[in-house]
Amino acid sequence: VGDAGYITIALVFTCGIGNMPPPEKIDWDDSGSIQFTYTTSIENDPPIRQFMPPTYSSLDFSSFDHVLLLGDSVMQQFGQHAGQFYHSDLSISANVESPLNMRTVYKFMNLVHQHVPPILSQLEKQLDSSTKSKKLLLLFGSGTWDLLSDGKIQGRDFADHKVACGRLMDEVHQYIQNNITEPWVDVRVAWRSGFATHPHIVIFGKKKRRTKQKIRTKYMSLERSRVLYNIQKKAMMEYHRDVPFLDLFDATLLSADWHIPGDGRHYLSEL
Fold it and tell me: What is the pTM of this model?
């Protein structure tokens, strides 16, 4: 054993396979991932770049009276564990169960129409002589479905998704302007970045389940999740600089060991 211990290297993709978008693998049985790890002893510590804590832009969660999370199962998991919310003033929307593209913006807006009015009613009831105003944050996020389930729409550069991010923010702001006119409430909007996905964590189950898993994860890769993250960041910079960007990609990039065992998409609540 070397003085520094062991290092394990996960071999996942080669020859640019991890960057291939739908439908380029349509005739493949699986993602083409290598799914092999190599462990060896080392004499010295390998160079490891310094971890930069997540950036929250100008976002201060403690300044809001209520936070509503809107998105898919990864967003739902972001706010709770086993049905227990991480904060008493937090709500989580129904699972949108959809990628975000120009054909599905309405699905995300349906969540806004469904969940925002009841929250406003709840906040209004909390007003009294000492509390004359309330702040509500709508935190959006999309990523996993965009990697796994967006057919032929996106291509390598997720161009349609980028435009859809801007369109969704446009429609949300328009909804706030047209429908939330009460002077006592201040509604803000923010975007949570996509997470890194790690295919080498995936463990395939028994035959019937294994076939579904291979189809579902065919286009999941760290490379594509990084491209999607950068596209979303550019979209907010270009279309809505006023929307804070909750940047968690780096934290998840370096946290492959914190995935739910066998699942390269969802993370343990302890993270």
Answer: 0.89
